[in-house]
Design goal:
With 235 residues, the protein is an alpha/beta fold. The chain is built from eight helices and eleven strands. It has a nine-stranded mixed sheet, sandwiched between helices. A two-stranded antiparallel sheet has the order 7-8.
């Protein structure tokens, strides 16, 4: 018995670099795919949006000197690289997964559309969304919230290196207290950083809950879809 039947999993690009300074750690990718395939075997459908910071910031170090629009397109291209990496590892597991791109990029991936995404989810249980929203000035957080709303996901899962939402940054304040559940209004009133404001407002306005959790703890994804209290739920 699962609590969530369709989820959108948002991962940062940095999550794929493991302990490296940049790039893609195949062992880390495989660990994430283990967890994803475990919940798919339980009947859960998983849409995946991943950032590109491990590629773009790793190669350039800083955005200084780049035109903002071109810089954003470079970042979106980096998400495609990460999406291809995930797709490749899935295929090595004999698991066919579609990579959908926000703009036409044949033969790299299939153009995104809601029907294409739903068909992919029904067929394999997994779909990877890349190239952000297809527009500059929007983050991959916003792409994640947009795709989650479009595919009627039950929850947006934001996998991070911390295990939830705290009253302050737990890496800087040892007295920071973790929330198990917090409302959208409380997040806004307290100025807590969950997602960027555009992404956050989209989730709030569409009544899409956000669950922030530690993706690096093995089994957390399964625990979440089974309804265990993991991370922090914003609703």
């Amino acid at each position: 018995m699962v609590k969530y039947k369709r989820v959108l999993l948002k991962l940062s690009g940095e999550a794929l670099q493991g302990k490296g300074a940049y790039g893609i750690d195949v062992h880390q990718v495989n660990a994430y795919i283990d967890d994803i395939l475990e919940v798919v075997s339980m009947g859960v459908q998983v849409g995946i949006v991943i950032g590109g910071g491990n590629i773009f910031r790793g190669l350039q170090g800083t955005n200084q000197g780049f035109d903002r629009v071109k810089g954003d397109y470079m970042g979106m291209l980096a998400t495609v690289i990460n999406g291809l990496a995930l797709q490749s590892v899935f295929e090595q597991r004999n698991y066919s997964v579609d990579l959908l791109t926000a703009i036409p990029m044949s033969p790299v991936g299939k153009p995104y559309s809601k029907p294409a995404a739903l068909e992919s989810l029904e067929r394999s249980g997994i779909v990877i969304f890349s190239f952000g929203t297809g527009n500059p000035f929007f983050t991959t957080d916003t792409a994640a919230s947009l795709r989650a709303v479009e595919i009627d996901a039950d929850v947006l899962l934001k996998g991070t290196r911390v295990d939830g939402v705290y009253t302050a940054d737990p890496e800087k304040d040892e007295n920071a207290q973790k929330y198990s559940t917090i409302s959208f209004k409380e997040v806004m009133d307290q100025g807590l950083k969950v997602m960027d404001l555009t992404a956050f407002a989209m989730c709030r306005d569409n009544q899409l809950p956000i669950l922030v959790f530690d993706m690096n703890r093995k089994g957390n994804l399964r625990r979440i879809v089974e309804g265990e209290t993991v991370g922090s739920l914003v609703c």
